[in-house]
Design goal:
Elements: E1 2-5, E2 10-16, E3 30-36, H1 38-48, E4 53-59, H2 61-73, E5 77-82, E6 88-94, E7 100-103, H3 112-125, E8 131-135, H4 146-156, E9 161-164, H5 167-174, E10 180-181, H6 185-192, H7 199-212, E11 217-220, E12 226-230, E13 233-239, H8 250-260, H9 265-279, E14 298-301
Parallel strand pairs: 1-4, 1-8, 2-6, 4-5, 8-9, 9-10
Antiparallel strand pairs: 2-3, 6-7, 11-12, 12-13, 13-14
Length: 314
C-alpha cells in the first residue's frame, strides 16, 4: 500500500482548444475534470495499476466534497481532513501541439490545528503503508519546515518516505533524510543554486542533494529522460514517445511507477520512465493504466550521457 500526502490538493479542469488566442472567446473541443494535486496524482496512478492507496489531504467546501467523491470513484481511499477554506480549482488549457497553459489557484490557508490534524491523519493511516509519498507545494499557513516534521515523524514510526517538493520546503526536509526525493530539472537547479546545462551537471547536483541528506534522488529531466542517483551509483533512463498530448501529472505518474516497483534500483527507474512516458501521451492529467505502458520503449543504463545538453522545458 502506498500512502500519499497532498497538503494543497485541487480539482483540475482541462480544456482542449484548437489554439490559445488572448482576449478571444474560445470554444473547447473537449474538457474534463480530475482530482488533482501531486500526491493525489500519485494515488491515481497507483490505483490505476491495481494497487491499494490511501490519500491524506485537507478538504473544504463543495469543491472538497467533489474531490472526495471523484477519488472514491477511482478506488482511492480518501483520509480527508476537514478544513474551513475551500479546496482550490486549477485550470489547464491544452493545444494540439502539446502546449499547455496552466492557471493554478493559491488554495485555502490552514490553521495550526488543521495542519496538525493532517499530520495526525498520516500517523493513523500509515500503519500498513509500504511507502509514504509527500507531494506538492504547501498551502498558506504551513511553514517550510512542515514537511521536515512529517518526514521525522514518519521515520520514527518506521515508514519509508518519498518527497516531491521544492524550494525551502525541500531544503528544510533534507536534514531528516527522506528515502527518496523527486525534483525536476528546474527544482534540482534551484536546490543547488545554479543552472544545469547538461545531464552530467544534473548528476552532480543530485549527488549534492544526497550529501545534504537525501538517500536517493529520482530526477525528471523532461524530454531528456530521468536520473536515479543512490548509494549504489547513478542510472539514466529514456523512453520513446510518439507524441506529447499533456505533461500534467507526468512526474507524479513517474513517482508512482517508481514506488510501485519497489522504490530502488534500475528496475524501479525503468518503471518510472515507462509511467512518465505513458502519461504525457494521455489527455489532461489522466494517469496511465498497465495497458498504456510500453516497457519495450524504455532504455535504462549506468552509462550516462554526461555531455548531453538539457533541453528547455516545453
Amino acid at each position: 500500500m502506498i500512502l500519499t500526502v497532498t497538503p494543497n490538493p485541487s480539482l483540475d479542469r482541462t480544456y482542449e482548444i484548437p489554439a490559445l488566442e488572448r482576449g478571444a472567446v474560445l470554444r473547447a473541443t473537449a474538457d474534463r475534470v480530475d482530482p488533482g494535486g501531486k500526491g493525489v496524482n500519485v494515488s491515481r496512478a497507483v490505483a490505476a495499476a491495481g494497487h491499494r492507496t490511501v490519500a491524506v489531504l485537507p478538504l473544504g467546501g463543495p469543491e472538497g466534497a467533489l474531490l472526495a467523491r471523484l477519488l472514491g470513484e477511482l478506488g482511492i481511499e480518501a483520509a480527508g481532513v476537514p478544513v474551513a477554506g475551500s479546496t482550490r480549482v486549477n485550470i489547464s488549457v491544452a493545444e494540439p501541439d502539446g502546449t499547455l497553459t496552466k492557471l493554478n489557484a493559491g488554495g485555502p490557508e490552514l490553521s495550526d490545528a488543521e495542519a496538525e490534524a493532517v499530520l495526525e491523519a498520516v500517523r493513523t493511516s500509515a500503519e500498513s503503508a509500504d511507502w509514504i509519498a509527500c507531494c506538492g507545494s504547501l498551502p498558506r499557513g504551513l511553514a517550510p519546515e512542515w514537511y521536515a516534521e512529517l518526514v521525522a515523524r514518519a521515520h520514527r514510526a518506521g515508514a519509508r518516505i518519498a518527497l516531491d517538493t521544492s524550494g525551502p520546503s525541500l531544503t528544510a526536509a533534507l536534514r531528516e533524510r527522506p528515502d527518496v526525493v523527486k525534483p525536476n530539472a528546474e527544482e534540482l537547479a534551484q536546490a543547488v543554486g545554479r543552472p544545469l546545462a547538461t545531464v552530467g551537471e544534473a548528476v552532480k547536483a543530485a549527488e549534492e542533494l544526497r550529501g545534504l541528506g537525501a538517500r536517493a534522488v529520482l530526477a525528471s529531466l523532461g524530454a531528456d529522460g530521468q536520473l536515479l542517483v543512490d548509494g549504489t551509483g547513478a542510472y539514466f533512463g529514456t523512453a520513446r514517445v510518439a507524441a506529447v498530448r499533456s505533461n500534467v501529472g507526468a512526474g507524479d505518474a513517474s513517482l508512482a511507477g517508481f514506488l510501485a516497483a519497489g522504490g530502488a534500483g534500475p528496475a524501479a527507474l525503468a518503471s518510472a520512465v515507462a509511467h512518465g512516458a505513458a502519461a504525457v501521451q494521455l489527455p489532461g492529467s489522466a494517469m496511465p493504466t498497465p495497458a498504456d505502458l510500453d516497457p519495450s520503449a524504455v532504455v535504462t543504463t549506468a552509462d550516462i550521457p554526461l555531455d548531453r545538453v538539457l533541453r528547455e522545458p516545453a
